[in-house]
Every structure is written in C-alpha cells, then in structure tokens.
Amino acid sequence: MALQGLKVIEFVGLAPGPFCGMLLADFGATVTRIDMTPRNSLDVLQGGKRTLALNLQKPKAIEMVRSLCRRSDVMIEPFRPGVMEKLGLSPATLLRDNPRLIYARLTGFGQTGSHAARAGHDINYVALSGVLSLLGRAASKPYAPINLVADFAGGGLMCAFGILAAIVERHRSGKGQIVDNAMVEGAAYVGSWLFRSQGLPLWGKPRGDNMLDGGAHFYDTYETKDGKFVSVGAIEHRFYQQLLEGLGLDPELPQFGHEEERKKQFEDIFRTKTRDEWMAIFETTDACVFPVLELDEVASYAHNRDREVFLDPLKTTDDATIPTPAPKLSRTPAASGALSKKRDDLEMTVEILGEVGIDLPQIVRLHEEGVVLLSTAPKL
C-alpha cells in the first residue's frame, strides 16, 4: 500500500484524530494508538490500528511514548494547548529525540490566539469559520450538517493532508516539523469556494434563497409518494429540460423566476409516484435526479456495488455499513482496517513494546505498577 512503512503514533481522541489516523492506516501506515483505558469502545474508527493503553501520569509511561516516537515518522495529538507540554511530550522534546518526526497537533482553535485554550465542538468551529452562516433553509436559523465540516473535513482530513505534505518536504530537508491543524481554519479552507464565489450571480440573497442552498426549485430534495426522497440538481438548462420532460411538463417552461409556484408544483408532482417509480423514469436521462438513499440501502445500490463503495458486510468485524477507502489508487490501493481481525490487547501490547525492548516479564511488572493498562492481568 502507498504508505507502507510509515509509522504513526496517535493519541486517542474523538472523531477528528481517529479519522486522521484511520486515513493513514487504511493507506498502509502502521498506526499505534496511545489510549488511557484498555478496549476503548467510543472510538469506532480504530480498525486496523494497534492499541497501547498507558497511565500517562506515570513517568515510565511517558518514557515509553518517547521511545516509540523515536522510532516513528508521525505523532498525532488532539489535546488543548499545553497538555502535551505538561506530560513532558512537547514538540521541543520529541523533535530533539527524533528530528525527523512530524508532530501533528489537531485542535479546534489552534495553538495560539485568544480562543486557543477554550473548549469547543464542531458546531462552534464551523460557526467561527463563517461557513455555518450559509447553511440552513430560508427564514430559519443556521443548521449544522452533523459534524462533517469541522471534525472530519476541516479536522481529520486536512490534518492528514498536512502530515503528508510535511513528509514530502522531509524527503528534501531530512527534517520533521509541527503541523498545527485548527478546525476553525480547516473548515474555512474547505469552504474556500463559498467565500470566493460570493460575487457570482448564484449568491446575493439571504440564506436559503440562493441557487445551491435550497432557494432554487431545480436544486433541492423532494418527497415521493412512499415517504422517501429524491435529489434534484438540474442546474444546466439542457438538464432542466430533461427534468421537465420526466415530470410531464412543457420542456420550454422558463427555468428562472416564479420559484415558490414552481417548487409547489414540483412537490405535488413528485408525491404522485414512489421514489423507485421516479427512478425508473429518470434512469436513462441526464436530468440529474437520483434517490436519497438510506444507510441500509447504500451498499445494495447498483452503482455503489459496481464501484465497491461500501465493504461487503460479511467480511467486516463490525455490525455496520462501512465505506471503502477513497480515492482508489491503481497500483497501491488502500484496504479498510475494518476488514482486519480484532486483536487481543495483550498481544498488541507485547508487539508494540517489544519494538522498544520491553519483554513480557517487564510488561507484567509494569501492569502491576499501574503503568501499562490491560483488560485482564497478564501472566508469564
């Protein structure tokens, strides 16, 4: 795989950090999670990673982390500024130990600035980025799209990009560096097109009244007879004409103007047939009409099956619908960690610590001292 041989240390966190580590692991990196409890059930993105649970209040645990980082390429930490410094794992310390280390810091507000030490979540970061002000229906409050924009797009994904950029640069300089990934900035950067396109005709109206945010009848979702939904994105006029034909309307009707009247007309028409009946009508057209699939439908949808967008549920170890890694590489494709066999925490601990010269008898003693945390007491 493309990142085979890359060694990553990931401090456990929620959502963005685990997603960043998952991306690297799926593309071949060896990712070792540093956890604070054995068998952390909150991290659903840990498949394909190794886990080592340590009591970071113990100096011996800190020395283990330093030993692992000396042998690693990347370290990812999701804590507020100052936490790693208090643990004795600051960038200055770890980069002195290993000058080639990529030290990735994934936080909401970044390492500096007036909000750096404050708590926050995805909705707060998207709010400060300006992107949240654009999301929502007309005459309604801003509406956050779950936690996709900051946690995953501006957080985990952008951090992984920063890590890989630093690795490419390291090939020239031989030196590691700090990646300061703030989700406020990541969310804003992901929204670059939204900011730069404000002067185009498709904007200029209040939230929810523009072409791409629900204000246009030809770019929206519609409920069907069976309570399901279809997505309509017929922006170009030639696509709009095919949409009108499929709906049984005059293809020469003007595309712009009379929005409320046309939207009500579309709502009434779409409710006359089931979603699948509409799909049969639009299946061979370029009207840009596609079903809004539920999570329990996506894996069986024909195109998704053709492209293997989701893993075969019979091959995974989780009772969930799981997307396959993207994008697809022609020579060195990724492989989802969700296909990996689940491993015993003692087995992983022995493997990880063995790489820094700590054997099983030492692990038993460290467990007794409360340094190494395991779900069951190890025996010699």
Choose one word for the global shape: elongated
Strand order of the largest sheet: 3-2-1-4-5-6
Cα distance spanning the termini: 36 Å
Helix content: 25-40%
Mean pLDDT, all residues? 96
Treating each run of at least 4 consecutive H or I residues as one helix, how many helices?
15
Radius of gyration, taken over Cα atoms and rounded to an integer in Å: 25 Å
Order of helical and strand elements = EHEEHEHHEHHEHHHEEHHHEHHH
Characterize the main sheet: 6 strands, parallel
Task: Report on this structure.
- The protein is 37% helix and 12% strand.
- It is built from 15 helices and nine strands.
- The strands form two sheets. Strands 3-2-1-4-5-6 form a six-stranded parallel β-sheet, with helices on both faces.
- The protein is elongated and about 80 Å long.
- The mean pLDDT is 96.
Q: What's the layout of helices and strands?
A:
Layout: E1 7-11, H1 16-26, E2 30-35, E3 50-53, H2 59-70, E4 74-77, H3 83-87, H4 91-97, E5 102-107, H5 122-129, H6 148-173, E6 177-182, H7 183-190, H8 192-196, H9 211-215, E7 219-223, E8 229-233, H10 237-246, H11 259-270, H12 275-282, E9 289-291, H13 302-307, H14 345-354, H15 360-368
Parallel strand pairs: 1-2, 1-4, 2-3, 4-5, 5-6
Antiparallel strand pairs: 7-8, 8-9
Helix pairs in contact: 1-6, 5-6, 5-7, 6-7
Give the structure's gist in a few sentences.
This protein has 380 residues and is α/β, with parallel strands linked by helices.
